[in-house]
Design brief:
The protein has 241 residues and is of the alpha/beta class. 32% of the residues lie in helices and 26% in strands. It is globular and about 50 Å long.
Length: 241
Amino acid sequence: MKILAFDTSGSTLNVGIFDSTTGLFFAHNHEHDLARTHSMKILPAISELMRKAAWDYKDLDRIVVTAGPGSFTGLRIGATVAKILASQLSCDLVAVSTLFAISDSIKLTAGQLKVPLINARNHNVFAAAYDQQGKVVVSEKHWVFSKLLKQLPKNSCFVFEEGSGDEFKNEIKDNAFKFVEQKSNRLIDPKVLAKSALFLPVVDPDHFVPNYLRKTAAEMNWEAKHPEAKDGEYSKYVSEV
């Protein structure tokens, strides 16, 4: 199976192509990318990898993309590219939780629970907990960090992007938990992401939307000014904005 995988949820663009039959794998070299320039870089990056592998777009069997949580803009970019390619090429689309992709990309000491964490500002986080086999122990959610700490077993180890979790480190240590910081270009392994497409379910490109886990600040501000609006009346919000 020929798989295209990409992640636009964070500061680093991750793109890879993988052939599950031959083991062929190429990854985008993002060493010289500027942070959060995904909209400019993603299509040229995909084209370059396809050229290296001597693949035609019609050769693709499956596309896998991180579905969130993460950067609102980044997730929209990834979702748009994934939906268009999957629809136009009539190939399968697989959407992977960003938190699961972070967890799946790191190896920890046996017995430790993996707790991927994304800073959601104001001492809130996006987080979940997985065991070594990838089974969900604590469901992904938009958490107040202090409440998350009360939900975690003592063998938990946080995983987050280098520099993004500084405000949480003292609380993590005070509660006898561990943490691992990863450079942004190593937080999600595109090869691991691609392989996840082999066992995760396919989604309908026409109905796929990112999983933000919370509303945007703009939407929350709009709803505060329109208390009469029912939850989910996005058409009114979008038309006004």
